[in-house]
Amino acid sequence: GAGVSQSPSNKVTEKGKDVELRCDPISGHTALYWYRQRLGQGLEFLIYFQGNSAPDKSGLPSDRFSAERTGESVSTLTIQRTQQEDSAVYLCASSLKAAATGELFFGEGSRLTVL
Amino acid sequence: AQSVTQLDSQVPVFEEAPVELRCNYSSSVSVYLFWYVQYPNQGLQLLLKYLSGSTLVESINGFEAEFNKSQTSFHLRKPSVHISDTAEYFCAVIPGGYNKLIFGAGTRLAVHP
To answer: Which end of chain A is more exposed for a tag (fewer CB within 10 A), N or C?
Structure first.
């Protein structure tokens, strides 16, 4: 597609369940980012991929969070044993190269609600 | 640690009035600066950016921002707003040597008729 695509757009889950969020970046974009946006708050950096490797995963809040990227394309963010504080919009962005001078293109996000 | 402070969480303004959305950052190294906008029910999109050169940068829809190194600020301004400018605006920085954007908490601009 022309833009960054994320799925699901909405996910409601019960506390303790695992969830997977998917991101399809713009074709040819080597850099991919995951951010989290809690209600009323700014964007919180989670992880950055360059190609299939993650040189910066400093923002992952706990070992319940993991992410991978394959084929320098699709990325999956997995949250294990979800907690209520995980409720947020999870945003994915991609850029042609690393973000340093370029523009990030954002998807519309996956809204996660943990009951 | 690098951080971005957006001093106003909400800014209500009447149509055709001027507006300024404030942004300050903390960084001891050179930075690149950005404003992103999120219109209702849409994803974030880049509004304007400062990388180098002229400290005043402009967007295609009339917004401008000025990089002030001494005050570590990058305030966003528009001389006359429209209803369609209603959105959330995020200031962001990339500190030198980093490859990620650090965002402020956002300012919700509400333009009233």
So the answer is: N
